[in-house]
């Protein structure tokens, strides 16, 4: 079976988690061995870093160093072995989030993030990135109805519109890899968009 590395991106509350389970089931029915994972996190070490990342105050460079340290461990222990075994890896957020949140959101120098990306990933990139795009206000309304906010989710709408712009820049720079999903639509309509993207690739 051919390996696939699929990442899910978007501002907080865009609907990624809602659709990961459904896609997992669809791929498994087609015979794929699916590994579900997430960032920050995905290994014991990276989940420990996630706790610090989400709940301790720090500057954007410290955020980036923590998240890329966790990513290195995650790649070595989970993602690369799964891909080598021909499995399909579904990852809730990956490096595009660092460019969107630490870069566009926090204003961090993108060249530092590019260097970290090169060092940590050694050329590994997702085969497909599903970018759940919707206005920051709509995402905030969905989050407010669903749960208590963490350190990132407490940011204002301007922050999330910058993050959204960061994703748009990453998508424009890698149009073959990115598929923009209109996440403002209903759950069935979003699911239909994802199915169309997968079918277009013969997946
Ligand atoms: N298309 C949709 N229309 C309306 N509500 C939705 C839609 N998709 C998801 N939701 C609801 O919005 C909330 C946030 O969705 P979800 O947790 O899937 O987002 P997320 O992108 O995974 O967020 P985060 O990255 O912050 O964990 C949930 O309550 C979910 O039920
Ligand atoms: C990978 C990554 C994530 N973030 C931010 C984005 C979210 O606000 C949180 C993760 O929370 P979730 O409930 O798991 O979506 O972390 C970031 O700022 N930089 C990153 O590289």
UniProtKB/TrEMBL annotation:
Keywords: ATP-binding, Kinase, Nucleotide biosynthesis, Nucleotide-binding, Transferase. It is an enzyme of class 2 (transferase). Residues 8-194 form the Thymidylate kinase-like domain. Gene3D superfamilies: P-loop containing nucleotide triphosphate hydrolases. ATP binds at residues 10-17. It holds the Pfam family Thymidylate_kin. It comes from the Bacteria. The keyword Kinase applies. It catalyses: dTMP + ATP = dTDP + ADP. InterPro entries: P-loop_NTPase, Thymidylate_kin-like_dom, Thymidylate_kinase. Phosphorylation of dTMP to form dTDP in both de novo and salvage pathways of dTTP synthesis. PANTHER family: THYMIDYLATE KINASE, UMP-CMP KINASE 2, MITOCHONDRIAL. Belongs to the thymidylate kinase family. This is Thymidylate kinase. It comes from Roseateles oligotrophus. The gene is tmk.
């Amino acid at each position: 079976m051919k390996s696939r590395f699929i990442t899910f991106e978007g501002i907080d509350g865009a609907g990624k988690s809602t659709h990961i389970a459904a896609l997992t089931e669809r791929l498994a029915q087609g015979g794929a061995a699916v590994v579900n994972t997430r960032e920050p996190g995905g290994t014991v070490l990276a989940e420990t870093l996630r706790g610090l990342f989400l709940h301790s105050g720090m500057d954007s460079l410290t955020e980036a160093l923590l998240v890329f340290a966790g990513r290195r461990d995650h790649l070595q222990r989970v993602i690369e072995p799964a891909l080598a075994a021909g499995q399909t890896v579904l990852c809730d957020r990956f490096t595009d989030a660092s460019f969107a949140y630490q870069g566009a959101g926090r204003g961090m120098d993108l060249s530092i993030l590019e260097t970290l990306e090169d060092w940590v990933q050694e050329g590994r990139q997702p085969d497909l990135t599903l970018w759940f795009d919707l206005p920051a206000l709509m995402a905030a309304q969905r989050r407010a109805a669903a749960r208590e906010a963490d350190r990132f989710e407490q940011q204002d709408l301007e922050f999330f519109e910058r993050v959204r712009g960061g994703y748009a820049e990453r998508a424009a720079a890698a149009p073959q890899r990115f598929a923009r999903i209109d996440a403002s639509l209903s759950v069935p309509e979003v699911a239909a968009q994802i199915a169309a993207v997968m079918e277009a690739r013969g997946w």
